[in-house]
Write a structure and sequence with these properties.
It holds the Pfam family ResIII. GO terms for molecular function: helicase activity. With 968 residues, this protein is α/β, with parallel strands linked by helices. Helices cover 37% and strands 17% of the residues. A hairpin with a 4-residue loop joins strand 25 and strand 26.
Amino acid sequence: MAINSSNISLELAHRLTDVVNAAWKSGEMLEKVTPTTASLLNYWFGEGFCNERARNFHEGQRQAVLNIIYLHEVMGENCVMDAYQGIIPELMDRADLAQLAKPKYQMPKYAVKMATGTGKTWVMHALIIWQMLNARHEDVESGRFTQKFLIVAPGLIVYDRLLDAFCGRKKRDEEYRDPQTNDYYMNQEVFIPERYRDEVFSFIQNNVVTKEDGIGRKTTGEGLIALTNWHLFENQMEEKEQDEDVDDSSTVTPAEIISDLLPIRPGKSAGNDLGMLDRRALGGTELEYLAGLKDLMVINDEAHHIHEIKRNGETEEVEWQRGLNAISATKGTRFIQVDFSATPFDTKGTGEKQVKLFFPHIIVDFDLPMAMKQGLVKLLLLDRRQELTDLENLDYNAERDEQGKVVGLSEGQRMMLRAGLTKLNKLEEEFLKNDASKNPKMLIVCQDTTVSPFVEEFLKSEGLEDEDIVTIDSNKQGEVKDEEWQEIKKKLFDIDRYKSPKVVISVLMLREGFDVNNICVLVPLRSSQAPILLEQLVGRGLRLMWRESDYIDIKREDRLRVLKNHQPPRTYIDTLSIVEHPAFIKFYDDLQDQGLVAVDEGDVGTGGATGDILTVGLREDYGKYDFQWPVILHDSIDEFEDAEIDLDDLEPFTMYPLPLLRKFLAKEGETFVSQESLTKTTFGKYKVTANLFNASGYNEYLQKLLRVVTLRFENCRRQGFPTIQINGAQTVQVMDWYIREKLFSAPFNPFQGNDWKILLAKDGIVTKHFVEQFAVAIYKMQNRLTTINAEVSHTDFSSLRAIKMRESYSMEVQKCIYPRLGYPSHGGGLEKAFIEFLDRDAEVERFLKINENGHSFAIIFYVRKDGLMATYHPDFIVATGDKVYLIETKGDDKVDDVNVRQKQTATVEWIKKINALEPGDRMNRTWEYVLVGESVFYSLSGSGATITDICNMCKVSYSVATGNLFDM
């Protein structure tokens, strides 16, 4: 790509990404941001936390957050020019310096370019949490952080989506929004570290103000999250500019007299608007209130609407941008702007000479090709059917009379609509066979609102019913009145979940913000070739429909076919079919040149729209082959009162001897901040002054240590599994004893001299050891609990009534609750061979391959090597006449992995507790845990060994799990 002033910001984004990734990998970035930011970044993107979550930020979201924080905190950007000078100084001669010198770029300003459907709202939430928590916990007077946010949407659809995200969703036909369905609550395990959750929830609950509430009128807490659309600025800017143009002479005009007497402007579009009258009566507009704030972060959703236009040769700002200019004028660098858009560019020229002018402040470029390669959006499929091959002669304009009035559809338009219906009907028939919740939809984008009725009439003539169609008309700007939108929402509410409507007809209203997952067919009857409009139309169908793990393999294979081999996919799972339109030939060609679109000539999906995915239910006599998973419960907490940490479980710190620690750490004249390295919890900031680290400070230090340790066990409680109730006071006493007597293998007094500094060592080396020791000790304490008077609940594996699998990667079995079992398409050879072995071995009475998602109750908790709590699902459960085996099959290269050992230890301890139960609570069998390596299995099974032989050879005992042959 040749770098010039029109695209240099993309080069800036790519270079910045390289710099940031290097700083993140080296650890330099965490050292240069605030402790609060470091804590958040480690929670969001640290390997230990990410490995324990089912969902995480994807690469594009992660990069956007990191790049903005790097520019803002590490580089300290005060204007857009700072980013250019700091990242690409050698390319400054190619930048548009006159543009960068404009006032609207003299502030921290970041544009996030992310493909539609890739979750830019998650980035928005992360940035708000980052700014808010830093403003509350760090130096707010620095001007780098704020608790006040203005979030602006382009129209009603995106605005309504923001209300869902911040205020929660509405149930059908209800006005109340449930705050526990907002994005922050629903995704708390991804967004918010445990210790900040109450604070963040409270902030969101108390500080959100909608445009209906009245920005500046509703009382909030100490912060602000104002939600509005760009129409906030529409009339206010016009009035503001008129007020500024008033002649300051002493002559009073009739217009001024009328203005003083009547607070309305006859002839103005909103002159008699009651909201405007209220604002004036209450002392000013929203714009004036926002301009009066000391600091503010503005987040523009779909920010491609903020651009410049030319009128009579003069460049003018649109009202949205002019409003932002007015708000920012009073704040300097305390005004931060973040723009989100999949299409952050304007265009110049027409036809082949058309050029995209990208926004100059783009800091990340996560485009459609990257999103497709990572499987984050649907694949694009150009529907080129037999009847559409003669595109040049296809009349795609509506038929009109002599006065230009639309009187009907052309034959070409009818053919395009029939092609779309053909595809929709095929998808509906085959999707619903596999999954009754998959309801494919078709979106038709018309030339104008006069065409829509004829499209609707034609669809009904083709067999669709009234309830199958919803038509959404709008004005030339793609807008509708608010009261009309309320009616539209009722029709579109949860459209993904219901069979009808099947078809949505629109002009411009749904070009952005219509965020549903089930749009599978797009029929573009419009002839506009504007790149932004085309990309927005395609974007309406990009969101994934098939998100379940059952479809991962088949979607991966389809992506390889399209993106690597330039072949059509074999299935229609997560594809968006665009019925070819002759006016869009160049657009289609550009997509094909980038390898982003495959051509469907009617022969794609030969393996069925969903490929060879099967839904396999329980066999008729499944009861003979069922298993029960036991969970030990306790009626009373009294059973835990005598449980104590075994002091012998606590090992001393041996990395450095105490005299050496005193020499390097217990020095005069410095400030120390101690952080626990895994969660970046700050334990205190203490300057070296007399008697500062007193008993109160030491007690706070112990309490924070206790909090970090107990957080390790919160995951167990959230998933409904019994855990010990930790006696906080007793544990703090043990912590104090450990520090004073055993931590350094010698008596240690934290109040003697500067020895306390050793506990607050900057790199957290002592704290990390401390946390790991207590996490393991508490875990061991729980596993020493007696099971006397235990109450046991059982869950049947048959409670999962059906499982999905690929026919080509599954086999028929006899001794299982399901008549077929699947195995991985990649590297699944060992599991396939093991299933075949189990099904034919006469000693095996029943067996099952545990489905990690469906059999989520079959779980064992363990403490990872780094002290984090994690979960584990064994591969197989197998029963013989007197044994139940939990069996893990592993490739030889993974048998000795450190965390595999941790899983083994936890499972052996769990098995021990199960075997202590009454026989009826454990299927009247003894339970054992077995780890079968690949080479051992093939060697033994090839020699005629039975399951008992293999399990006796590969049984995992406590000594094997821990690697201590003398510990039985």
